[in-house]
Write a structure and sequence with these properties.
Blueprint: E1 27-28, E2 41-44, E3 50-56, E4 70-76, H1 84-99, E5 105-111, E6 115-117, H2 128-139, H3 148-158, E7 165-171, H4 182-194, E8 199-203, H5 210-220, E9 224-226, H6 236-248, E10 251-252, E11 256-259, E12 265-266, E13 274-275, E14 280-285, E15 291-297, E16 301-308, E17 335-336, H7 339-365, H8 369-382, H9 387-409, H10 432-462, H11 467-483, H12 489-559, H13 563-579, H14 584-623, H15 638-647, E18 654-655, H16 661-670, E19 673-682, H17 683-694, E20 698-700, H18 702-707, E21 715-724, H19 725-733, E22 738-743, E23 746-751, H20 752-756, E24 762-763, H21 766-770, H22 773-781, E25 855-857, H23 861-871, E26 877-879, H24 894-901
Parallel strand pairs: 4-5, 4-7, 7-8, 8-9, 20-23
Antiparallel strand pairs: 1-16, 2-3, 3-14, 5-6, 10-13, 11-15, 12-14, 14-17, 15-16, 18-24, 19-21, 22-23, 25-26
Helix pairs in contact: 1-2, 1-6, 3-4, 4-5, 7-8, 7-9, 8-9, 9-10, 10-11, 10-12, 11-12, 12-13, 12-14, 13-14
Biased composition (Low complexity): 405-423
Pfam family, one: VWA_3
Organism: Gimesia aquarii
Length: 908
């Protein structure tokens, strides 16, 4: 017996909305006292038999429960895995390996007729060996059929002896190479469950054996995922993530199962594994009281589920189908590995019933009443509560009787005794063909009546769910009745009235359904609006909470010395208040941040004011300290300053642009005189005249003129003589908003706006840009007498007062003095004659001509080095000063001053 024979192949799963199950807790080495209440999916047939579906699921499992760490991956490479199915399977495998944690290990096998490993040992999911295995699978040709039982046995031998082992199968589950019999399936699942090895699977392919994969999953504690319907495609990343989570989820492998009600019979007596991420669904039959409890246990763990028995519902008729072929003590019963599989079972049962109903109806229309009766009996057997099966039986029996009656009318009359001759006035006999036509019309009318009744009954049945389909069915039947001419007119009108009446009723139902739909849409719109409003409020609350947290963090930064944090906290607080005015936390945050910021500013300003006050007092005390002014500050002679000033004029402003010879010639022509006599001459002709006269190239930029609304034909009316070309061009061009630029070795006539956009790079001395030369000379020659004035000679209030050389008094311990160009008072000693040669006093009123002075080499090496670097000369000579002291080069610093203080005498 193959696996396809144990059970009904259409069963896979049930809807979760019709029942719910208790959550359960586990305890080690003890049965916990749990009081959890749930519901059961229930069905009662016409004979009073009850069928149930029990859902068992664990909310949580202890840490010692099984979870997969060592994973054997079986990848189907048979001939059925081609095209999009192969691509989808490979993408799911890659996503699954990517989602696995680093502490997991995997081994990859290719499964077809043989089971071929692609890695020698278990490796990390993101390792190079795993990637090479996936690449090898992608390049392997899909050939042959699948021997799934042999593959499972091969993988079991390769798994290491540890508790955290799992198997993942990716394929269609069609074990076509060798079908798995019921005993083989029972032995295989018992071995896997005994060794705590869950078998997970992802069903993908044109045809899928979900029954086989579901049996492996429910008996070993695995999860079964399937691809979507034809034309759709699962996201590989989503499927891979779900498979990775299923592999890592814990599994409880019970050894015993006990029911509180002994009358209840389970379709499978084995204790099935329990998971936290899917349901384990038992099918049961029997009579139940109001409550039921199920206990599962092994040596280490135990759990109890408690249920409330619900009212039976006719929509759960599919629960009775697995019990049609049930045999007590069967090795492999029917159970469902989660709600998804039961939902597929429900859908398959409903589709199967619809197919049987359609086949029965077609059999009646074709006159095959025996086949219709078989379909009706099968429907009653699989779904006793389905009225369509009774209808098929009644219709088939009715048509059989009509055919028998019609056959009786066609039998010849029995032989009778001879009758005496008729009298002469007897009427002629009526033709028998007329009576036959009448009988046929009656039979046809009866058939039409039954057909109309069935149509009305079917329309009533489906009008609630599909009113448009019911209306179409009635219209087709009405059209058929109207086109029929071999039935009684009264019967025809009666059938038409019945159909029209039913059509009115269906149309009314359509209107009611449309009104209900509109009302539901309005309610949904209102609910959606309320949901959006709630989401908006929640979002605003979350944003406000984030702002408050931000304010709290900024206040903490402010307390640790960040003065700007208080200002930022206040700004964030105002945003929070503007978002929700009157909010308590936001208002309090604004008050606190603003007050803290102001207090921080007050404390900082007070501290700064105290520091500045003390610093000012220190400066006062520092200025009170006397500063000796001997030896004096020495400055270069006046001719040196004059020479420096004259030499730097060339570099007062430097243009980095280097003119070409053509551009230089244009600039030279601009300085030459020209003649201009133009009585209303176009601008283009004027420019041509100047270009020919001065032998230069002049171009008019028509595009730039067009932007200002001008043309090269603008009239020029001037008469000029004896002026430079530059001035003539300015006089001609400026009145019409034009100008000229020298660029690219030509002269261009353009607009003033465009010329302002042309920039050139020029270099200026920074000193001239910051402080004007006039200001420098004034500050040197007057006011505070050079370094006089404030602390004159670095004394308090000393130095020169103004005028010639500063001259001012000594102030408070300040130095005085005079000298040319506001030099320090020490410059009076420069070039002074030696005492032994001083016979005559120089004439103070005599005028000295610097140009006629004899230049002497500068003896001060420091000044000489500065001037040599500036002027680029090897030797710099200086004119004779009025007085000059022959002394060593002097550096003005504290060390020199201290050394000078130790001199016994000073030259005067």
């Amino acid at each position: 017996m193959s696996i396809s024979r144990f059970g009904i192949a259409t069963f896979v799963l049930a809807a979760s909305a019709l029942f719910c199950c208790t959550s359960v807790s586990f305890a080690e080495n003890a049965v916990p006292e749990i009081s959890n209440v749930g519901q059961i999916l229930s069905y009662e047939n016409t004979e009073g038999q009850h069928y149930f579906a029990l859902r068992l699921k664990a909310d949580r499992l202890p840490s010692n429960a099984h979870s997969g760490k060592q994973i054997a991956i079986l990848f189907d490479t048979s001939a059925s895995q081609v095209g999009e199915h192969r691509i989808q399977a490979l993408d799911v495998l890659k996503s699954f390996l990517k989602e696995l944690p680093n502490d997991s290990t995997v081994a990859v096998y290719a499964v077809d007729v043989q089971c071929t490993p692609f890695v020698n040992e278990f490796v990390a999911p993101q390792s190079r060996q795993a990637k090479l295995a996936v690449e090898s699978l992608a390049s392997r040709a899909p050939l042959g059929a699948t021997n799934l039982a042999q593959a499972m046995k091969t993988v079991m031998k390769g798994l290491k002896n540890q508790e955290t082992r799992s198997i993942l199968y990716i394929g269609d589950g069609m074990s076509s190479a060798q079908l798995i019999s019921v005993p083989e399936m029972a032995a295989l699942t018992q071995q896997l469950a005994h060794q705590n090895v869950p078998v997970h699977s992802y069903a993908v392919g044109p045809r899928k054996d979900l029954r086989l994969l579901g049996t492996l999953g429910v008996y070993t504690g695995g999860v079964v995922l399937t691809d979507l319907a034809e034309g759709k495609k699962d996201l590989p990343t989503k499927v891979g993530r779900e498979l990775a989570k299923a592999i890592q989820a814990p599994v409880f492998f019970p050894e015993k199962i006990q029911l509180s009600d002994k009358k209840l019979v389970l379709n499978t007596p084995q204790a099935l594994p329990i998971r936290t991420d899917r349901d384990t669904i038992y099918l049961a039959e029997g009579d139940l009281t109001e409550r039921l409890s199920v206990e599962l246990s092994n040596k280490n763990l135990s759990g109890i589920w408690k249920f409330n028995v619900p009212v039976a519902q006719a929509v759960n008729s599919f629960l009775a189908v697995p019990w049609v072929n049930y045999q007590p003590g069967q090795e492999v019963g029917i159970a469902f590995a989660g709600q998804r599989m039961m939902n597929l079972a429900r859908t398959g049962h409903e589709e199967h019933m619809a197919q049987l109903e359609f086949a029965g109806t077609q059999a009646i229309r074709s006159g095959n009443f025996e086949q219709a009766a078989k379909f009706g009996n099968l429907i009653q057997q699989l779904d006793p509560g389905n009225t369509r099966g009774d209808t098929l039986l009644k219709m088939s029996n009715k048509f059989k009787q009509d055919q028998l009656a019609q056959a009786d009318t066609k039998q010849p009359a029995a032989d009778a005794k001879a009758q005496p001759a008729a009298k002469g006035d007897a009427k002629p006999p009526i033709d028998d063909s007329i009576s036959k036509v009448e009988q046929l019309r009656q039979i046809k009318g009866a058939q039409m009546k039954i057909e109309v009744s069935n149509t009305i009954e079917e329309a009533q049945r489906i009008s609630a769910e599909n009113p448009d389909g019911a209306l179409g069915m009635l219209k087709r039947t009405l059209s058929f009745v109207k086109s029929t001419s071999d039935i009684e007119l009264d019967l025809k009108q009666q059938l038409e009235r019945r159909l029209n009446s039913m059509m009115v009723e269906v149309r009314s139902q359509i209107e009611v359904a449309e009104t209900r739909r509109i009302r539901q849409q309005q309610q949904l719109a209102q609910l959606e609006q309320q949901k959006r409003l709630v989401d908006k409020i929640l979002l605003e609350d979350e944003k406000l909470e984030q702002l408050i947290d931000r304010i709290r963090s900024l206040m903490q930064d402010g307390r640790h010395g960040d003065s700007d944090a208080y200002e930022e906290a206040e700004a964030v607080s105002r945003v929070a208040v503007d978002m929700e005015p009157g909010n308590g936390p936001a208002t309090a945050a604004l008050f606190t941040s603003e007050a803290a910021g102001q207090l921080d500013k007050v404390f900082r300003m007070r501290s700064l004011r105290s520091d500045r006050f003390l610093e000012t007092l220190y400066q006062v005390e520092l200025s009170h300290v006397p500063f000796p002014d001997e030896p004096p500050i020495r400055w270069p002679a006046a001719p040196v300053w004059t020479s420096l000033t004259e030499r730097r004029k060339k570099w007062a402003a430097v243009d980095l642009h280097k003119n070409s010879p053509a551009e230089q010639r244009i600039f030279e022509e601009l300085q030459k005189e020209t003649e201009a006599n133009f009585p209303d001459i176009p601008l283009s002709e004027v420019m041509t005249y100047f270009a020919d006269l001065h032998n230069i190239t002049i171009l008019i930029n028509s595009n730039d003129l067009g932007e200002e609304g001008l043309t090269p034909d603008e009239p020029v009316n001037v008469s000029l003589s004896g002026i430079k070309l530059k001035s003539a061009l300015n006089i001609i061009l400026k009145p019409i908003g034009l100008t000229y630029v020298v660029e690219d070795e030509v002269m261009k006539i353009t607009t003033i706006v465009k010329s302002d956009e042309i920039y050139t790079t020029r270099v200026y001395p920074v000193a001239d840009l910051v402080i004007s030369v006039a200001t420098q000379q004034q500050s040197v020659g007057s006011s505070q007498g050079g370094f006089g004035g404030q602390q004159g000679g670095f004394g308090q209030q000393g130095g020169g007062q103004q005028g010639f050389g500063g001259g001012g008094g000594f102030g408070q311990q300040g130095g005085g003095g005079q000298g040319f160009f506001s030099v320090g008072p020490e410059m009076l000693l420069m070039n002074a004659p030696k005492a032994k040669n001083a016979k005559k006093q120089p004439n103070k009123n005599a005028k000295v001509n610097p140009a006629k002075e004899e230049l002497q080499p500068i003896n001060d090496q420091e000044i000489k080095g500065i001037l040599n670097n500036i002027l680029g000369q090897a030797e710099v000579k200086q004119p004779k000063a009025q007085f000059q002291v022959q002394d060593n080069p002097f550096r003005f610093d504290n060390h020199t001053i201290e050394q000078l203080k130790k001199k016994p005498e000073i030259v005067k």
